[in-house]
């Protein structure tokens, strides 16, 4: 028989469980927040870059084939002009033979000639010239046929490449449209996470920049430099503390050198940010991100993706705020352009 006093104990147990859940800190990392859009943006970014490279390679190949076809066309025109000239030479030889013979057969010419031997010598010379011109015309016609075949091949390759490039251009446009949509979703998710005080979890991107054999790199690959270190403005009380890179939302952000991630946070003026510690007592900050690709404590190498650019925090538009410091916190910033230049990276 069940004890009638055990059922009421469920109420305080449930209340305790709810109290524990309510007491969980609000600034813990949400492992799934932002992962969908961030992963989509990273994938589409790679696809767009690949499609762009293929399109550019195809465009260069098409231009090379076009130049080759035009070259064959010019050579073919010259060859045809040469053949026409030889045909004119052959016509002049025939006319000379006809005029010299007066329209009579060779036997009659010999009977009537004052010097038959001289006549035969002249006839042999004309015959040799005739054979030489005919032989040259034959060679030229064969060369013309080869040139025409080469021109046709180059023209066909050019047309095939142009058709391929048209398909690649359409694919590139389609990917870029999807990327723009994914960027909008990523930006919305990032803003929602920051507003809620819950940092999005690390988006483990499938690809980082492989094949880099350099110790130091720029934090983004393609960019426009905007606000510089030390510049004034209403947003900065004591001058701008970093270098801004104007890039679209979702642009992969790279660690400039090898090191360890010492901070991943969101909220405040910098929005979502990552701080990496490097050898020699230096720290680099990557701020206003839309998503992060690392967790605190991770080891990173030069060129490894640490996040995706955004416009979180005190930002007037999509960009990466990059700082170099001698401490992990604000107030110890160095000129990042000069610091990177000293390490062989020109911006």
Give a written overview of the molecule.
The chain has 347 residues and is of the alpha+beta class. It contains 5 helices and 10 strands, in the order H-H-H-H-E-E-E-E-E-E-E-E-E-E-H. The protein has helices spanning 10-22, 35-101, 106-112, 116-196, 336-341, and strands at 224-225, 243-246, 252-254, 259-265, 272-278, 282-292, 299-300, 305-309, 320-325, 333-334. Strands 1, 2, 3, 4, 5, 6, 7, 8, 9 and 10 form a 10-stranded antiparallel sheet that branches. Strand 9 (320-325) and strand 10 form a beta hairpin. Helix 2 (35-101) runs antiparallel to helix 4 (116-196) and helix 3 (106-112) crosses helix 4. It is elongated and about 110 Å long. Residues 1-34 and 108-113 have low confidence and may be disordered.
Features:
single chain, 347 residues, alpha+beta, 10-stranded antiparallel beta sheet, 5 helices, 10 strands, 50% helix, 14% strand, elongated
List the helices and strands and how they pair.
Layout: H1 10-22, H2 35-101, H3 106-112, H4 116-196, E1 224-225, E2 243-246, E3 252-254, E4 259-265, E5 272-278, E6 282-292, E7 299-300, E8 305-309, E9 320-325, E10 333-334, H5 336-341
Antiparallel strand pairs: 1-2, 2-9, 3-8, 4-5, 4-7, 5-6, 6-8, 6-9, 9-10
Helix pairs in contact: 2-4, 3-4
């Amino acid at each position: 028989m069940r004890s009638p006093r055990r059922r009421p104990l469920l109420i305080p147990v449930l209340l305790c469980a709810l109290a524990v859940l309510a007491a969980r800190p609000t600034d813990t990392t949400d492992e799934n927040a932002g992962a969908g859009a961030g992963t989509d943006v990273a994938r589409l970014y790679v696809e767009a870059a690949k499609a762009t490279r293929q399109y550019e390679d195809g465009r260069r190949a098409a231009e090379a084939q076009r130049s080759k076809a035009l070259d064959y066309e010019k050579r073919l025109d010259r060859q045809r002009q040469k053949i026409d000239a030889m045909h004119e030479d052959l016509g002049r030889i025939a006319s000379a033979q006809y005029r010299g013979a007066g329209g009579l057969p060779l036997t009659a010419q010999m009977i009537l000639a004052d010097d038959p031997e001289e006549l035969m010598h002249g006839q042999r010379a004309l015959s040799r010239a005739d054979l030489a011109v005919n032989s040259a015309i034959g060679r030229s016609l064969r060369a013309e046929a080869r040139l025409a075949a080469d021109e046709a091949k180059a023209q066909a390759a050019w047309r095939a490449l142009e058709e391929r490039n048209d398909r690649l251009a359409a694919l590139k446009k389609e990917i870029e449209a999807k990327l723009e949509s994914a960027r909008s979703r990523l930006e919305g998710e990032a803003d929602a996470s920051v507003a809620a005080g819950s940092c999005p979890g690390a988006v483990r991107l499938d690809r980082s920049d492989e094949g880099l054999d350099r110790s130091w790199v720029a934090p983004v690959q393609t960019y426009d430099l905007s606000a510089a270190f030390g510049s004034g403005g209403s947003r900065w009380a004591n001058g701008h503390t970093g270098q801004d890179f104007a890039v679209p939302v979702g642009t992969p952000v790279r660690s400039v050198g090898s090191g360890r991630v010492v901070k991943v946070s969101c909220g405040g003026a910098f929005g979502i940010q990552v701080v990496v510690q490097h050898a020699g007592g230096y720290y680099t900050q990557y701020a206003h991100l839309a998503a992060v690709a690392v967790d605190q404590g991770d080891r990173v190498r030069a060129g490894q993706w640490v996040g995706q650019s955004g416009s979180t925090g005190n930002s007037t538009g999509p960009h990466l705020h990059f700082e170099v410091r001698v401490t992990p916190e604000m107030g110890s910033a160095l000129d990042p352009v000069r610091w990177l230049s000293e390490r062989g990276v020109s911006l």
